[in-house]
Amino acid sequence: MHGVREALIVWGGWEVHQPEQVAGSFAEGLRGHGFAVTLADTLDALCDGERLRAYALIVPVWTMGEIRSDQLRPLLAAVEGGVGLGGCHGGMCDAFRGSPDYQFMTGGQWVAHPGNDGVTHRVEIRDRDHFITQGVADFTVSTEQYYLHTDPANRILATTRFPVANGPHAANGPVDMPVVWTKYYGQGRVFFCSLGHQANIVRIPEVERLCLRGLLWAARAEEAVQ
Asked: At what angle do helices 19-31 and 205-218 cross, to 10 degrees?
């Protein structure tokens, strides 16, 4: 048995991604599985390294922006020491573009979304036995199709086929781009889902399930779904 797990959700950055609403959706899902959730709208919530180490999970919902070294260093140390990290879309993997240390931890960085919003594309589950993908079939979604530069160490759980919309990438032919992955950063579990442009996308049943189970996995809380 576990005591009450704690999660920190830090939201802010580019408002088009509706960070407050997305953070609220994640908080609701985690609370429904027994987590005590702290919501913070400042990156200064990351400055207290000792406090960060007490969390089971940290969820960044912060597109673009800048992060100071006194905010980033405690985050990197906490995850390397075993705190889980999880998130979606630009809120996790288009944050702090000037910080390669952050990108090394997350496993990827957004570089393009050919066709912009409203691109209808297929998401294919590649690893159906993983805790995160159980109960999720392939599905179609109309939203941004993220083109990412990714860590070859990532464990890929779902992909989408490019090109759908035309662009300079199309000359390279078909590419299966990661949509959902896991990795480790030191002892910490890291989860990412590239879907989640706005709160309505996060609430699509397949995306909601993938994200919630991904956050639980990152927090080592798989038993919370039983």
From this structure: 70
pTM: 0.97
DSSP letter at 137 equals -
**CA–CA distances in Å: residue 98 to residues 66, 109, 141, 218:** 7, 11, 30, 25
DSSP 34: T
Render pLDDT for 87-117 as a digit per residue (tens, 0 to 9).
999 999 999 999 999 999 999 999 999 999 9
Cis, bond preceding 100 (omega within 30 deg of 0): no
- Are 203 and 21 in contact by the 8 Å Cβ rule? The answer is no
Tell how strand 175-185 and strand 147-150 pair up: unpaired
Average pLDDT, the chain: 97
Looking at domain 6-225, its CATH class is alpha beta
* Strand partners for 139: 123
Residue extents of the structural domains in the chain? 6-225
- State the DSSP H helix or E strand holding residue 201, giving kind and residue range, or none if neither: helix 199-202
Q: Measured between alpha carbons, how far is 69 from 67 in angstroms, rounded to an integer? A: 7
Cβ within 8 Å of residue 123, ≥6 positions away: 138, 139, 140, 141, 158, 159, 160, 179, 195, 206
**Phi and psi of 216, rounded to 5°?**
-65, -40
